[in-house]
Design brief:
72% of the residues lie in helices and 0% in strands. It is mainly alpha-helical and 110 residues long. The radius of gyration is 18 Å and the shape is flat. The two termini are 32 Å apart.
């Protein structure tokens, strides 16, 4: 992942650290992880809206809304990881390697 991405995540985390009423409390890690669930709920709402699954609301969202909400989930999770981990970029890169290696083994040479 680009260094700029983690730099931007760090800027968001710092802003939250400076501005949020819960900044500096023991609960900040918990609240940042719980925020992921809130963002997931917004993805679910956008999905329902894009698919017209709620007859009362009809097609209240489109697939661009779903994409934006998914991006918000990713960014929120990255901010939470950056809050908890000393080197979030390294933690994510290592975990991604493990997950990819588990399901996408290197091709065997004949």
């Amino acid at each position: 992942m680009e260094d700029r991405t983690w730099e931007q995540v760090g800027r968001l985390r710092k802003w939250l650290d400076d501005e949020a009423e819960t900044a500096g409390t023991a609960d900040v890690r918990l609240l940042r992880v719980l925020k992921i669930g809130e963002e997931y709920g917004e993805v679910a709402e956008a999905m329902h809206g894009a698919m017209g699954a709620n007859p009362r609301k009809g097609r209240s969202h489109d697939w661009n809304d779903v994409q934006k909400e998914l991006a918000d989930v990713i960014v929120t999770a990255m901010v939470a990881l950056d809050t908890i981990a000393g080197d979030a970029g390294h933690v994510l890169a290592e975990r991604l390697d493990v997950l990819v290696d588990r399901v996408c083994p290197e091709p065997q040479e004949a």
